[in-house]
Amino acid sequence: MGKNIQEIKEVKGFLPRSIAYAERINEDFGEGLAGFYESIWAEREGGLSMKQKHLMVFAIACSNNNIQSAVKILERLQKFGATRVEITDAMMMAAWTGGIQNFTDFSAAVLKEMERLGY
């Protein structure tokens, strides 16, 4: 297992499936994908916070009607201190960009998970 892949595993606590699959195809491909992943999620001075990044990907997942991903991201949002208002603002932005039908589709599952997490 290469350096980038090991670092991702340590930071996340697990290895994302995309990196595991890429490594099975080719070790260099796996390392490259792990480096890409690290670059995206790195905290940079003056850049977006981890909470802001997760709010963005949450809104994108919702607007793309990727319900499974949106629900999983809620746990990360909780870890990074996102408030209910921030999450619902992101949901409303998703309704704006993805359309009201997507909002209708994803909101039931997201609201149920928010309730489970205590939001």
Automatic annotation (TrEMBL):
- Please state the Enzyme Commission number of this protein: 4.1.1.44
- Which molecular function term from Gene Ontology is one that the record holds? peroxiredoxin activity
Q: List, for all copies, the residue spans of the domain called Carboxymuconolactone decarboxylase-like.
A: 28-109
**Keywords of the record:** Lyase
The record's annotation in SUPFAM superfamilies points to:
AhpD-like
Q: What is this protein called?
A: 4-carboxymuconolactone decarboxylase
Q: What is the lineage of its organism?
A: Archaea, Methanobacteriati, Methanobacteriota, Stenosarchaea group, Methanomicrobia
